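Work Package 4 report. The design task specified in the project plan requires that, given a folded chain encoded as C-alpha cells, an amino acid be chosen for each position. We show below one input record used in the internal validation round.
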C-alpha cells in the first residue's frame, strides 16, 4: 500500500505535503480512494509512528529546501490513533455547539500527545470549527504469543 501511495504521487510529479487514502476490505485487498494535496488533520498519527515533524518538513519544502529524509529512510515504529474532541450537541444531530468550557483536563502520560487551543473557563465560539482538541496516543508494537 505504501509503494502504491508513492507511485500515485510520482505519477503526477507531485511535490509537497499530501495523503493518499485507500479503502481496505476484509481480505486486506486495498483500493485507491483519493489523494489530498495538503497536510491532513490526522498528521500527528504519522508523526508519532515515524518520529518526523511533518509541519517542519512542509515548511522546508515551501522554502525550496529538500526534505530531511528520503523515502527509504522511513520506518514505522509502533501504532498510533487519533481522536477529535468536538463541541457538538448530540441531542441536536451533533451540530456544532457553543458555550463555556467548564472543565477541561488535558490527558498526559507516555505516548500521549494533545493538540489543543483551549483551557477550562474559555468560551467555545460559533465562528470556528467546533474541534476543541486532538488526542493522539502511541504504543509500541508487541507481538503476543500465539498471534501470527
Amino acid at each position: 500500500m505504501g509503494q502504491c501511495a508513492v507511485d500515485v504521487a510520482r505519477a503526477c510529479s507531485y511535490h509537497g505535503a499530501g495523503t493518499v487514502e485507500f479503502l481496505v476490505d476484509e481480505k486486506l485487498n486495498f483500493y485507491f480512494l483519493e489523494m489530498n494535496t495538503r497536510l491532513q488533520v490526522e498528521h500527528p498519527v504519522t508523526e508519532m509512528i515515524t518520529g518526523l515533524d511533518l509541519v517542519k518538513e512542509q515548511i522546508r519544502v515551501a522554502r525550496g529546501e529538500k526534505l530531511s529524509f528520503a523515502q527509504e529512510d522511513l520506518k514505522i515504529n509502533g501504532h498510533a490513533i487519533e481522536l477529535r474532541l468536538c463541541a457538538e450537541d448530540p441531542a441536536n444531530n451533533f451540530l456544532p455547539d457553543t458555550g463555556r468550557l467548564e472543565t477541561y483536563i488535558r490527558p498526559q502520560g507516555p505516548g500521549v500527545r494533545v493538540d489543543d487551543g483551549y483551557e477550562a473557563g474559555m468560551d467555545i465560539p460559533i465562528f470556528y470549527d467546533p474541534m476543541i482538541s486532538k488526542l493522539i496516543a502511541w504504543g509500541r508494537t508487541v507481538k503476543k504469543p500465539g498471534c501470527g
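The two ends are 20 Å apart (CA to CA). Validation will be extended to a larger panel in the next phase.
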